[in-house]
Amino acid sequence: MSVLDQQVFQEQKAVEILSVLLRKGKVPHALLFTGIEGIGKRTLALMFAMALNCRRFADRPDLLQAGLWMGAVAGCDCKSCRKIRSGSHPDIHRVAAAGAVIKIDQVRELCHTISMKPFEAAVRVVIIEGAQAMNPESSNALLKVLEEPPDRTVFVLTAVEPRDLAQTIVSRCQKVGFHPVSRGRLAAAWRKKYDIPPGEADILAAMAEGGPCRIDMALPADRSAWIKRRSWIIGRLSEIMTRKGQDLSVNGLLAVAERLARKKAAAEGSLDVIRSWLRDLIVCRHCPEKIFNQDALSDIQRISLNYTEISLLSKIEAVDAAQRDLRSNANVRLTLEVMVLQLAKK
Ligand SMILES: [Zn+2]
Q1: Over the Cα atoms of the chain, what is R_g?
Q2: Taking ligand 1, which is a single-atom ion, which protein residues have CB atoms under 5 Å away?
Q3: Cβ distance 55 to 80 under 8 Å?
Q4: Residue 247: its pLDDT value, please?
Q5: What is the mean pLDDT of residues 272-299?
C-alpha cells in the first residue's frame, strides 16, 4: 500500500464487505468494485488477492476473524504476498485496456490461461481493470467464463459505475462500492505520514477530489515540484482570465501552452489542476467552502464575477476535450495551444 493510509481505507464500506467475505470463507466468483478514478480499487483488489492466498492466515486465522487482514498482508513477507506485490505471481492475472479498449484477444488469452489449474495459488485472482473498456465482443467472451467459472478462481472487475458495463456482466457480480474519502481525513493522514505542512496537505487532499490514489504519483518524491507547478499554473490562469485575454499577446498564450506541453506525463496532471480551478470559479458562487483551491479563494471569487456560467462551462469542456485528445495520443503542444486560446476567450 503506497500513499493510501490504511486508516483512510478502513473507513470504506467496501473493506467491511470484503472482511465479511473473508471471515465467512465465502467469496463469490465475481466481484465488481466501483468508484471514482484513483479511489484505490486496484490497490484493494491486489490486497484482497493477497488475503485470499496469504500463508500467514493458516497459523493466524484469528487475524481474518478480527477483520485485520489488510494490516496483515500489507506488511507480510510470505512467498505468496511477496510475489503478488512484485507482480510476479503466476496465478494473479491483471487485464487492462491496451489503448482504448480491452480487446477480444486479451480476453481469449486469459480464458485459455485460466482453463488450466492454478500453478500455486489457493485462489487464483483475475483483475479486470477499467472493465468498461471491454467492447461487446470482449464482454461476451468474459460473460461465458463468468457463467461457468473455473474452480478456485475469483474475478474482480473495476469500473467507475455499474452502468458503464453490460448488464449481463453486472448481474453476475457482487457489487462492492467505494466512496470518496473526505478531504479532512486525507489531509490528516498525509500530514501525519509525510510530515508535510498543513497547507500543503490541504491542497493535495483537495486536488485528490476524494480519490487518494489520484496524486499517488506526486507523493512524496515530486511533491514540491508538483506544488510549484500548480502555483505556476494558477498564476498564469489568473493572469489570462483576469484580462480576458485582451492584453495578452497570442505569443504570450502560446508560450504558456508550450511550457505546459514540455512533459507529456505532467501535462495530464496540469489539466487536472486547470479543470479544478475552473470548476472552483463556478462553485465559489454557490458554496465557497467547497472549492478545491482554498488558498486562492479571493482570486477565484474576483475572477468568477467576470464570466457567465455558460462561458465557464465551455472552458471546462475545452479542458475535457484536451484531456481526451492527449489520451488518444494527439500532438501535445497543438492540443494545449488550442485549449489555452479557448481559455483566453471572453
Ligand atoms: Zn502473506
Answers
A1: 23
A2: 54, 56, 76, 78, 81
A3: yes
A4: 64
A5: 91
Distance 53 CA to ligand 1 centre (A): 7
76 Cα to the center of ligand 1, angstroms: 5
Q: Residue 31 in contact with residue 126, Cβ under 8 Å?
A: no
CATH T-level fold of 6-177: Rossmann fold (3.40.50)
CA nearest neighbour of 169 among 186, 145, 190: 145
Cα(57) to centroid(ligand 1), Å: 8
Helical packing angle, 41-53 and 13-24, nearest 10°: 20
Cα separation, 337 vs 320, in Å, equals: 14
Is 148 a residue whose pLDDT tops 60? yes
Instruction: Tell me, in angstroms, the distance from the centre of ligand 1 to residue 143's CA.
Output: 31
Cβ–Cβ under 8 Å, residues 234 and 293: yes
User: What is the average pLDDT across 284-299?
Assistant: 89
Residue 3 binned pLDDT confidence (cut-offs 50, 70, 90): very low
Q: What is the fold of 222-344?
A: Zinc Finger, Delta Prime; domain 3 (1.20.272)
145: Cα separation from own chain's centroid: 27
Q: What is the layout of strands, in order, in the sheet containing 92-95?
A: 92-95, 124-128, 153-159, 30-34, 174-177
| Model confidence band, residue 38 (pLDDT cutoffs 50, 70, 90) | confident
What's the pLDDT score for residue 147?
95
- Distance separating alpha carbons of residues 108 and 9, to the nearest angstrom: 34
Place of cell 492475472: 93
Measure 287 CA to ligand 1 centroid, in angstroms.
46
Residue with cell 483483475: 127
Look at 206 and 325; give whichever has higher pLDDT: 325
Residue 142 predicted with pLDDT over 70: yes
As given in the structure block, the three cell numbers for residue 157 are 472487475
Is residue 93 within a helix (H) or strand (E), and if so which, with residue range? strand 92-95
pLDDT at 313: 96
Please report the pLDDT score of residue 66 as a whole number: 83
Grid cell of 40 as nine digits: 484505490
Q: How far is the CA of 302 from the centre of ligand 1 (A)?
A: 54
The answer to whether the beta carbons of residues 316 and 290 sit under 8 Å apart is no
Full-model pTM? 0.74
